[in-house]
Amino acid sequence: MQPATAQLPVFQAQEALPLRADLRVVADLIAPGTTLIDIGCGEGDLLAWLQTHKNVKGRGIELSQTGVNRCIARGLSVIQGDADTDLQHYPDHACDYAVLSQTLQTLRRPREVLEQLVRIGRHAVVSVPNFGHWRNRLYLMFNGRMPVTSALSYTWYETPNIHFCTISDFVELCERAGLAIEKRLYVTHQGTPAPFHNKGMFANLFGEQGIFVVRK
Length: 216
Known about the structure:
This protein has a single domain, classed as Vaccinia Virus protein VP39 (Rossmann fold, 3-Layer(aba) Sandwich), CATH 3.40.50.150. The protein contains 9 helices and 7 strands, in the order ααβαβαβαβαβααβαβ. It has helices spanning 2-12, 21-29, 45-53, 65-73, 83-86, 110-120, 134-143, 167-176, 203-206, and strands at 35-39, 57-62, 77-80, 95-101, 121-129, 180-187, 209-215. It has a 7-stranded mixed β-sheet, sandwiched between helices. Strand 4, helix 6 and strand 5 form a beta-alpha-beta unit. The chain starts with a helix and ends with a strand.
């Protein structure tokens, strides 16, 4: 019972954060006054919030030139880069946190990128959509087609996701790579705790997203 109680403050603070659901949880996991690199930072929403509210010194990498331009216009330190190929150029322990939010499943080499994250940052914060959620299972069973839900809104021929995984798959990947999971949070699409979020195998059934803090 103690681990579940310790996780509650993470969720209670979310409503005040003007961020995407999973980013609200990620923001609570970052300690004030630390350093961070946000890989696949989009338009820089997380970077901007942490810089303003937690005095975090952050940098970003974004594949989209449009996203990079938007970040620069907001005064953020962001460069264009590809997580699949460019992370090897960063030194060991370059920052306190390396963040990869809702991006791992879009990469060509997810295991290699995860290993780069824990090399660059003392802690890696990774969020992934859970393709094993019960809605996806029922959708596939009754419709016989790839699921399209509020959490997974792309049709199969438009989706950027190329490596579909479940929460259990991600945990197994960490085990095979010899990485330690310091914290794991299972949330709904709205960023609230999933039913049975501290019940192991049930988290893989009811969690729409998994958010993990990982280290070597």
